[in-house]
Amino acid sequence: MPEVSLSSFGRRIIQVARSGSARLGRDPLLWIALAAVLGILAIDSVPARPWPLAGALIAVLVLTSKWPRAIPLLVATGLAFAWLHAANVEQIGDFPSIEKLSQGDKIPAKAIGTVLRAPAEPEDGDTRISGSLTLRLESLELEGNRHLVRHAVRVRLDPLPPSGDSGPIRYGDRIRLSGTLERLAAARNPGAFDPRRFFYRSISALVELRSGPGDRFEHLQSDVGNPLRHFAEDTRKQLADAICYDLDDSPQAIAILNAMALGAREQTPDDLEDLFRLSGSLHIFAVSGMHVGIFAAIVWALLSLLRLPRRLVVLLVIPIVLFYAVITGLRPSACRAAIMACTILLGLVAERQPRLLNSLGLAALVLLAIDTQQIFLPGFQLSFAVLVAIAILANPIRLALLHVFAIDPLIPLALVPRWRRRLDSAWAAVAGLLAMSLAAWIGSAPLVIWHFHLLTPIAIVSNLVMVPLAAVILSVACLSLLLSACQLAPVALLANNANWLLIKCLTLAATAFAAVPGGHLSFAPGDDFKKAETPALSTLLVLDTADSGAAQIITAAGSSNSTSRPRSKKITWLIDTGSASAFAHAVEPALRAHAVNELDGLLLTHGDLRHIGGTPLALERFTPERWLQSSLPNRSPVRRSIDETSSRLKSPAETVTATQIFLLDENTKLRVLFPPLDYPVQSSADDQAVVLRLESGPWSVLLMSDAGFTTERWLLDHCPAADLRSAVIVKGQNRGDASASADFLRVVDPLAIVATNVSFPTGEAIDESWRRDIDRRGIALFDQSQTGAVEIRLGERELRIDATVNAHTFRSRSR
Q1: Which residues pair with 150 in a beta bridge?
Q2: Is 0.90 topped by the overall pTM?
């Protein structure tokens, strides 16, 4: 009897759902999906336990069964997905010893689990390369206690273990390893990649297991994972070998082809991705509706050649499309496109015309039911935002564009010249592409600004060229696969080489569009608003490059008396660029996050590669109005590249010497204290680093770079004490000499010190006796190994210093 009641209640709920959805208009699934999204966002903002939500959901379902309206249905949907998300979050947070790990503790651990995502394979003969993988845990031993868990963790292997009898690490391998368990690191610089947030949202991981040379690694079993996934992984490797055959001498072409056709972006160089990002066409790397649509069209055409019935063709195309989504890694964009394609194809079978927005809502509901965390990933958000914008805006924009050159409808068509009709046909095609591109840009622009601090108006034009070119590349790749399957290797080789040429054209187009002035702009909405409560005359951001290098961004408020070009109110100088890697991963994201498109000044302190290696990129991407370097010789390995870039851009360097003063605005100036013009060349680059004093209002900050005892002694002997006295010292570590000596600190009399601290290279770590001396003097120390980037705000009456990683803050009134 209870079973009958439960069945009757279920049928009643289905009837109510149909009745409620009928009241939501022509796209009920879109509104239901929106309710699901709002439910997830609400419960993520205000966390709650799952069981109260379950109770509320049951109550609303009972109400809905009595009152079949749209609003109760939407509320029930929101509660259902809120409950799913709350249960998911609670399960993630139920990790052993998470309280200790969240406090910064590092715990030795032994783990057994199955590999969900394998590391990139090392190059031949390279046994020391590090790598990372995703592990689904089975058991975890912490502090002598064994826990049975099903959490995902990120594993860092340094080095990767040598390939044994089972070969390199692959998906589905069951392994045992030891290492140190710690909380995933947060972003150490503004605008930089945030591992803690990304891996929590993408794989529901809170912690990372670091396994080093002394730790244990053992392969227990192979092929433990999903058999379909294994087949897909093997198939993807075979497909990659086929479409990249004879392209071994062009790794860039291989990387682009694998990313575009198979969604494998792991081997794509960062500088190449940056190029496509700045041209507004990075989306062609993500397997999306365009890729799935082209693939489905090609399969449809091939099956149609066999003269099969239309319904049979549809039933064959659907599983092939779904398998393509599996091969490409089940990424949200691929899954969304596959679900929508299947919905459209099933509509053809049922002889019904599916609606794009309704299909989009269905895809969102399916994906969020599988994993509610996907709503927080940029790829998921961009994928759906672009499709919604295209569905709503593309056709009105197309009609508006057609109206521009429309023939008067009162004129008989027979009187219209043939050339005009052909011109109208061509314009109709262009208008369709332009409408799609403009609608997609409108849909994606707010999210690109929010996540990447970048606005790319050039994307409206670049996609008109690059999307059709990408479609041709995908079509040729499919042709290559078909020829390879038919044992026509010589012809397949021709197709691959044709793709090589097409990819070169695509890369050249991306380079050209990325270089268009004003084509991409840094954009940080709300940044000035957030800082309005504590206005500053100037700000110094000391970045954490994590390699003992350095880079500082000075931002002055600007004024009418400023000599800077009138493009922006703020005046921005960059002191050193960090290494090339540090510039790409720390400095450039920080500049973008602060809406910097062009630098007013770039100053290089000395020839250490870790301080100036990113200079060519800085000169190209941020075109400083003036850039300066020390008057002393620079023997850095990157010197030649800097000179070539400077010559090509027709931007010669200026030299700086002691006593020079650079006026940033009426309240802020940068004074050069060292080196003098006649200073003898030193054997160490650190001993001839430029020393600067930033003066803003009543405050001064001494920028010491990597200067050591020799430089400090010269400053004490040649500079008045008033020119050295500063509220803050920003310093690196002199590899061969002590720095910030007792005599120097007594004269400078700082309130706080910001210092780099790394364990490698040897000698560039903070000396513990020096740390204790700083503590005895009552000086606030910002150790960047613990604080990450440090922001120093110089106001009219207040000095404020804030760390990025922890809550370390220092404040002082004018002294």
Answers
A1: none
A2: no
Query: What would the pLDDT profile of 616-670 be if each residue is shown by its tens digit?
Result: 999 999 999 999 998 888 778 888 999 999 999 998 999 999 999 999 998 999 9
Kindly report each contact of residues 803-812 with a partner whose C-beta sits within 8 Å and lies 24 or more positions away, as own/partner. Answer: 804/187, 804/188, 804/189, 804/190, 804/544, 805/186, 805/188, 808/782, 810/751, 810/752, 810/780, 810/782, 812/727, 812/751
**Is cis: bond before 517, omega within 30 of 0?**
no
Q: Are 569 and 594 in contact (CB under 8 A)?
A: no
User: For the chain, how far is it from start to end, CA to CA, in angstroms?
Assistant: 83
202 contact partners, CB below 8 Å, separation of at least 6: 373, 377
Q: Show Cβ contacts of residue 390 under 8 Å, excluding neighbours closer than 6 positions.
A: 356, 436, 439, 440, 443
- Contact between 287 and 328 under an 8 Å Cβ cutoff? The reply is yes
| Among 347, 330, 243, residue whose Cα is nearest residue 292 | 330
DSSP 671-728: EEEE--TTPPPPSSGGGG--EEEEEETTEEEEEEET--HHHHHHHHHHS-HHHH--SE
C-alpha angle 25-28-33 in degrees, rounded to nearest 5: 145
- ω into 159 cis (within 30 of 0): yes
Q: What number of CA atoms fall less than 13 Å from residue 319's CA on the CB side?
A: 5
Give CA–CA dist 239/235, Å, rounded: 6
Confirm if 437 and 460 have CB atoms less than 8 A apart.
yes
CB 792 within 8 A of CB 703: no
Q: What does the block give as tokens for 246? A: 């004879």
